[in-house]
Sequence to fold (168 residues):
Amino acid sequence: MTESSNIYILVIEDEPDVLDALVRDLESFEDMFPVEMAEDAEEAEQLIESICEDGHEVGLALCDHVLPGKNGVDLLIEMTKWENTKQTRKVLVTGQAGLEDTVKAVNEAGLHHYIAKPWDKEQLEAVVKKQLTEYVLRTRKDLLSFMSKLDQERLADAIHDRGSISDS
Fold:
């Protein structure tokens, strides 16, 4: 991915009210990280393909477990196998996943975080900030442009450790 490509947040949720609430709680990130929405796994797969074809990337996927058709855990597992989404940070946002499904998500999908519904806005924002910071640290050389939205301390430490503000 190029330094100039947009990093998207993808929200996969089939309940319109919950989807609206998640997107509303992500507003503070949207000026730097565009938010796309999908109501099921199939739509999510099409969005991922479209985002990547346009030269952008999905940095974070917030996914419900219970979806029409393929469930969220299975979608997240598939995403770990696709070249374009191997680095994507994966968060399960659900009130439905049992222990077995959650363990499967952690072990097979490389789940990075689990948020139980109903969530707290501040908790969601903290998780999103942490996961996007992790994504940027792994995929970007130029970290300075992310200082206003992400974990400034972690980014500053990485800039210091790398020995320069930008390698480009």
User: Anything to note?
Assistant: The mean pLDDT is 89. The radius of gyration is 15 Å. The domain at 7-121 is CATH 3.40.50.2300 (Rossmann fold). Strands lie at 7-12, 35-38, 57-63, 89-94, 113-116.
